[in-house]
């Protein structure tokens, strides 16, 4: 994989073909969020959206831990790297963009979790589209227990993603849950043996990358843009995004590949 120059000391961003892997890289602090990390995350999400050849991203943490949440001191302390300082000044609301609260990428994100994914770590997970979790991982939204508030958007997003009673259980009690419980709640897609989350996430990412990129992006956009709409209005938006995909060159290639019993080669047009 190629290390991209938008990486920061606490965020490693690598590209391998159509897949970008974003690694939170502050293992000495259990990958707790810092300004360095959030600038890197915000830069990664912008790159993933803007780069035509990128089709899917993976978000993970270094050295067997996903993210232990916010480090308020480190988040409030500017980076010592001049290039990161300059980028932080340029990226408006980089904290919220990095945390996936604002301007979600136009391409899907697969989350690969080992170890702790708590507080802000769970909020990051909730901002992704597909989630693979190692069997001994720990998840949880601890904010209410500490008289805080989940500012990454979990109070809104979680009840929309899993049944209300499960969402309120996590949000109001501030308790931790196991990977198995997260799977039963519908919060994650797969539970895998420890050490295999990234490999499993890459398999999912490769499946997505082999699909038609216009179709994948239109499906994501349709879901996001129709939240809260009545079905008739939502179907109009779905048609607006869907018909251009049906008429695309990729759609023709998909039909040809099916008839010829071969893998399709999509170009995003």
From TrEMBL:
Keywords: Lyase. Its EC number is 4.2.1.17. InterPro entries: ClpP/crotonase-like_dom_sf (IPR029045), Enoyl-CoA_hydra/iso (IPR001753), Enoyl-CoA_hydra_C (IPR014748). PANTHER family: ENOYL-COA HYDRATASE, IP11341P-RELATED. Residues 250-269 are annotated as: Disordered. This is Enoyl-CoA hydratase. Pfam families: ECH_1. It comes from Nonomuraea soli. It is an enzyme of class 4 (lyase). GO terms for molecular function: enoyl-CoA hydratase activity. Belongs to the enoyl-CoA hydratase/isomerase family. It comes from the Bacteria.
């Amino acid at each position: 994989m190629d290390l991209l120059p938008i990486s920061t000391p606490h965020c490693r961003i690598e590209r391998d073909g159509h897949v970008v892997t974003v690694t939170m890289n502050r293992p000495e602090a259990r990958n707790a969020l810092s300004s360095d990390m959030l600038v890197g995350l915000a830069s990664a999400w912008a790159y993933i959206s803007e780069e035509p050849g990128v089709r899917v991203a993976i978000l993970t943490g270094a050295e067997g831990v996903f993210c232990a949440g916010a480090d308020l001191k480190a988040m409030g302390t500017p980076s010592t790297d001049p290039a990161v300082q300059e980028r932080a000044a340029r990226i408006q609301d980089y904290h919220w963009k990095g945390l996936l609260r604002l301007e979600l990428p136009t391409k899907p994100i697969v989350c690969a979790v080992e170890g702790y994914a708590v507080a802000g770590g769970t909020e990051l997970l909730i901002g992704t589209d597909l989630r693979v979790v190692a069997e001994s991982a720990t998840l949880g939204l601890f904010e209410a227990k500490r008289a805080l508030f989940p500012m990454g958007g979990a109070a809104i997003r979680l009840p929309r993603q899993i049944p209300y009673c499960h969402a309120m259980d996590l949000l109001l009690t501030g308790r931790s849950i196991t990977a198995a419980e997260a799977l039963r709640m519908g919060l994650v897609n797969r539970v895998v043996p420890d050490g295999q989350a990234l490999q499993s996430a890459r398999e999912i990412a490769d499946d997505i990358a082999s699909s038609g990129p216009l179709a994948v992006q239109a499906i994501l956009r349709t879901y996001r843009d129709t939240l809260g709409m009545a079905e008739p209005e939502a179907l109009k938006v779905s048609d607006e995004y869907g018909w251009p995909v049906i008429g695309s060159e990729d759609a023709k290639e998909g039909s040809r590949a099916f008839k010829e019993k071969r893998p399709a080669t999509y170009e995003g047009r």
